[in-house]
Amino acid sequence: MLELDRLSKTYATGDTALSQVSFEVPAGQVVGLIGPSGAGKSTLIRCINRLVEPSGGKVILSGTNLVTLRGNALRRARRRIGMIFQEYALVERLTVMENVLSGRLGYVPAWRSFLRRYSPEDVAKAFSLLEQVGLSDHFNKRADALSGGQRQRVGIARALEQDPELLLVDEPTASLDPKTSRQIMRLIGSACRKRNLPAIINIHDVLLAQQFTDRIIGLKAGEVVFDGKPEALTDQVLTRIYGDEDWTRMRGEENAGEESQPPTVDLAEGL
């Protein structure tokens, strides 16, 4: 389980990105984190894995306060947190397989990571994950030869190769078309259910969040202004989070766009 206790972040400029954010994410729950640009969503995710240093509060994962960790203890803790990035964060010149296996770098000695030598068990697991995300035929391709959706699937497989206790996902569908976006969200949700993984997904697409997450947290100006079930995200709540908008019309436009897409193949089955 993940617990945030009064997590705060104020930058040297005096700008407050997070203000006393507190909530828990139990095992197996997928949380959609929504809010306008600048609300603090990416900062929150990066404070959890200490890519950004919190100014105050606690981040407790399986009983350990990650905010207090330094050096080797912090590196060991980060092995327990899988991260999926908006821009994929792949090494373009390496193969798909090598990128997936990089999820094990925190577990192997430095000399083995330098030579990219992994155990047969790690390699077998990587092949299994690539099959589950629909990329088994692409294991030897360079990452820069893949489409955006394929790269994101590599990112998912790499994160799962870590055997994480928590999954953090930063705008996984921002650069993808509607069909591929649904496939990616379905893959992430399926992986979390199978592994009983808690996950936080920073996502701009409210309809995707409602369709594919168990719970939605709305941020505005660094504060939690909504925390509830996707079906409780009414037009009034959306206005509180984002401001005035014709949400009914926007939903109609989004649904029309989805209906024009070809049928989606569920690649998440068995993930």
UniProtKB/TrEMBL annotation:
<dbReference type="InterPro" id="IPR027417">
    <property type="entry name" value="P-loop_NTPase"/>
</dbReference>
<feature type="region of interest" description="Disordered">
    <location>
        <begin position="252"/>
        <end position="271"/>
    </location>
</feature>
<dbReference type="GO" id="GO:0016887">
    <property type="term" value="F:ATP hydrolysis activity"/>
</dbReference>
<feature type="domain" description="ABC transporter">
    <location>
        <begin position="2"/>
        <end position="246"/>
    </location>
</feature>
<dbReference type="GO" id="GO:0005886">
    <property type="term" value="C:plasma membrane"/>
</dbReference>
<keyword id="KW-0472">Membrane</keyword>
<keyword id="KW-0813">Transport</keyword>
<keyword id="KW-0547">Nucleotide-binding</keyword>
<keyword id="KW-1003">Cell membrane</keyword>
<dbReference type="InterPro" id="IPR017871">
    <property type="entry name" value="ABC_transporter-like_CS"/>
</dbReference>
<dbReference type="InterPro" id="IPR050086">
    <property type="entry name" value="MetN_ABC_transporter-like"/>
</dbReference>
<protein>
    <submittedName>
        <fullName>Phosphonate transport system ATP-binding protein</fullName>
    </submittedName>
</protein>
<keyword id="KW-1278">Translocase</keyword>
<dbReference type="InterPro" id="IPR003439">
    <property type="entry name" value="ABC_transporter-like_ATP-bd"/>
</dbReference>
<keyword id="KW-0067">ATP-binding</keyword>
<dbReference type="InterPro" id="IPR012693">
    <property type="entry name" value="ABC_transpr_PhnC"/>
</dbReference>
<dbReference type="Pfam" id="PF00005">
    <property type="entry name" value="ABC_tran"/>
</dbReference>
<dbReference type="GO" id="GO:0015416">
    <property type="term" value="F:ABC-type phosphonate transporter activity"/>
</dbReference>
<keyword id="KW-0997">Cell inner membrane</keyword>
<dbReference type="InterPro" id="IPR003593">
    <property type="entry name" value="AAA+_ATPase"/>
</dbReference>
<dbReference type="GO" id="GO:0005524">
    <property type="term" value="F:ATP binding"/>
</dbReference>
